[in-house]
Structures are given as C-alpha cells and as structure tokens.
Amino acid sequence: MLKVENVTKYYGDFLAVDKLSFTVKPGEIFGLLGVNGAGKTTTFRMIMGLLDSDSGSVTLNGKPIDYSQTDYIGFLTEERSLLTKMTVREQCLFFGTLKGMSREKIIERLQYLLDKFEIPEYIDKKIKELSKGNQQKIQFITAVLNEPKLLILDEPFAGLDPFNVEMFKKEIIEMAEKGSMIIFSTHRMDHVELFCKKLVVLLRGKTVISGYLSDIKEQYRKKNILIKADITKKKLEKIDGVTEVIEKADEFEVKIEDKNKVKNVFDVISKTKNVTKFVVEEPSLNEIFIAKVGENYEK
What is the pTM of this model? Predict the structure, then answer.
C-alpha cells in the first residue's frame, strides 16, 4: 500500500503542498487532480523520492521510498522524456536496465507490449521517426516495462486518438486487476470517471475534494429530474417537494428540494401515460470540479 501522510512541501516561502494525505491499495486506480500549479508534480516527485518533504511521510508497503524501492515503480511523465536518437529497442534496454531487468527479460517484455499496442514493426525505428501518438505508446511501454507495483501516470492520454485511448485504458485496468497501485492524473475529468474510484483534488497545494467518487457525486447530487410524459406543468408543480418546473421543447426539468422528494415525483409519474423518460440527473466530475475549485479559487 502507498501511504501519503500529512505531507507538506515549501519552496522557500511558497507552500506547494499542504498536509496532503491519501492511500492507494493494491488494485486501486487513484485520481490526483488539480489545476496547473496545484501541487501534483511536487507530490509525484515526493512519492518518487526525488524531493524530500518538509514534514509528513510517504511509504510504500510500510517502507520509506528509496533506491531499494524504485525498481518496483513506473512513472509516465507529462512531458516527453524519450531519447529521440535511440531506437525503440535501445530506449527500452536503457530504461529496463535502470530498473534491474535482464536483457532477455527486457526484450521479451518489449516484444509482448509492442504486439499488444499493434506496433511490433517499430522495434528498430528511431524515436524521432515516430508520430507523436506512437511516441506516447513507447513512453507508456517504458513506464510499464518492469511490471511496476506502483505506477504513476501523468496525462497518459496526451496526443492519443480515441482508439489508442481505449488500448491504454485496457492495459491500465489489466494492471490494476493484477494488483498494481496506480495514480492517475489528467485534466480530462471524463477519463478520471473511466478509472478512478477514489480521488483527491488539489488547489494551491490544499485538498478541496477527497474520497470515493460515488460519495462525492452523492454529496453534489443535482436536484433535477428530467421527465417525458403525458403530464402538464401545473400537475408537476403541485407535487410535494417540487420547487420549480421548466418546460422545454419535449421534456420537463423538475427541480426538487432534496433527493428524498424523488419518490413523490415518481409516484405521480408512475400513474401517468406514455412515460418515456424519468432521469434523476447525476453531476459529472467535471461539473463538481468546476463548482468546487471555483468556489475556493478566490479565497
């Protein structure tokens, strides 16, 4: 288990990360989110052991992260970190050797991953000869070459088309199913919703949202019901708990006091003819992020 406990980091007088705490268990995909400058990169560097925290601790399976642990960690950076004059084979041999892998194991694993990502013919091509999307595939391969127990992914889908995003998604989920701990950071909230059950949102180094995604969505649940049925606006307005009814082109948007009033509306609609839609709206993570970060941004 990765455990980040009350970690704080200053750069001079600037507070980059403020008493950050979270855990990631084997098999979990954890979202670490925030606007630019929120403290994500500093947090990654402290987890990797590249930066010392000013207070608090980071441990992997109960031990501080040092060179004895780094062979079990994979890191895909947001920036391209490939040596463009090397071939794919040379690049992976270099990274794999740094992770303590044998040459035979590196080549075996590389060929497996190139086949999986449908680019086996690129093994002896120079990095600079590849498209941006295929360079991103190679960068991902170098991060997972050692089958890491802890994998940190910073904007892993940058430059990828939807087909290749799906490839990455399958590999990430497979790794989690095999027990890897994965920290996932992106500006695309819809990607977070594909993977992450738990997350933290940072703003200026402080935690503004934390917990399980299902609980967060419940906390910020919209008080709206979308209805298509043979019913009048007046009848909807008379239901106990309804605060407003907005009539749209082909449906009603019914606003209610709280989620407990959904049953009152449902009881009426269930006795109505030609009901084709009854949807209690769930907020997207993007909406929650904008609402919560915006609420705290000027403070």
Answer: 0.82
